[in-house]
Design brief:
Length: about 160
């Protein structure tokens, strides 16, 4: 993560679950990863690519640090099935921020969430970005009618 506070939250959660072994925490920018070429067999990112400024550069960096045959797995909010979009938009922009304020005392973060989801590439567009970065065997699977999607690509 590029955010040191988020790294600390993640570290604390893993420690509380008893995960204290060979875990290295690295504060880094996804657009400029501090790892050598062909270093990892698998990279996962969940609900984070949406917040990366230059997705093309981040995907290229992930490709660079993956070993041949390595897999990239992205879990991210996505474009919902069209017949549900009006209901989903109403919930996202009207109810979700109010719930965020009520539960977490923070409506702005939930307003940002709704907006950032709409700015994120569609499933097909992200698939094409992955292909353009060099990934092969790229595919995605919609979950919850497309509220989220699981994207996968292989470094061939």
């Amino acid at each position: 993560d590029i955010n040191s506070s988020m790294l600390e939250v993640g570290k604390e959660k893993l420690t509380n679950k008893g995960c204290v072994g060979n875990i290295e925490y690295v504060q880094a920018n996804a657009e400029c990863l501090p790892f050598p070429d062909n270093y990892f067999d698998c990279i996962t990112i969940a609900f984070g690519l949406r917040n990366v400024t230059n997705k093309e550069e981040a995907l290229s960096e992930m490709y660079r640090v993956l070993s041949p045959g390595g897999k990239l797995v992205i879990l991210e909010f996505s474009k919902i099935w069209a017949p549900l979009s009006k209901i989903y938009d109403g919930f996202s922009f009207n109810i979700l921020p109010k719930l965020g304020k009520w539960v977490a005392g923070d409506d702005a973060s939930y307003q940002y969430l709704a907006e950032s989801i709409r700015m994120h590439p569609s499933q097909e567009d992200l698939k094409n970005l992955m292909k353009n970065a060099g990934f092969g065997h790229v595919d995605f699977h919609n979950l919850s009618a497309g509220v989220v999607a699981l994207h996968m690509g292989i470094k061939c």
